[in-house]
Structures are given as C-alpha cells and as structure tokens.
Amino acid sequence: MVTIASQRTGAGATTEGAAGRPIELETIEIEPVRVRVLPGGRVDSNNAAKYVDRAPKTLAMWRMQGIGPPWWKCGGRVFYNIEALDAYLRGKGV
Q1: Which of 50, 91, 94, 59 is nearest to 77 (CA)?
Q2: I want to staple 48 with a disulfide (CB 3.0 to 4.6 A). Which of 15, 41, 68, 80 is the partner?
C-alpha cells in the first residue's frame, strides 16, 4: 500500500505542504505483477512485457530498433534477464 500526496479534496488524512498549505493524502493499492521467472533469472518476452508494463509488441519493436533492455534468443525464443529488466526500469525512472 502506498500513500501519495494529492491536491484533490475529499475524505482522507491531511498534512502541510512545502508552502505551509494543507494537502490531502490519498492511499492507493498497488497490485503486484505476477510473472514466471525461469531458472537463471530469465523471463520470456510475454512475461517481460508484463513486468515492464508494456505490450509484447512494444518490446518486439524495441528489439528491432536496438533500444530497450538487453535480450537474447535461444531456440527461436526471446529471453530477458530479470535483473536487467530491473536495471532498465531504474535507469528510465519508471
């Protein structure tokens, strides 16, 4: 569960902002993403897409353009390393 600052009015806790004006805090639920991690920390392209919250087609386009997280192909299937996906997300500020 995460609490974020919101300028909206309604029910909830309040706190003072930087200018001394009260701001309201809003609590939202973050749903965990369930992905299948294979031995060695690898994930297939569909699970990688879920993990980075993008469509599988987006990752395919990134591969064609040479951007996005590092990947490799084995037996005709595309794989990503889960640690590389984490590093990519941290680097992008997502």
Answers
A1: 59
A2: 80
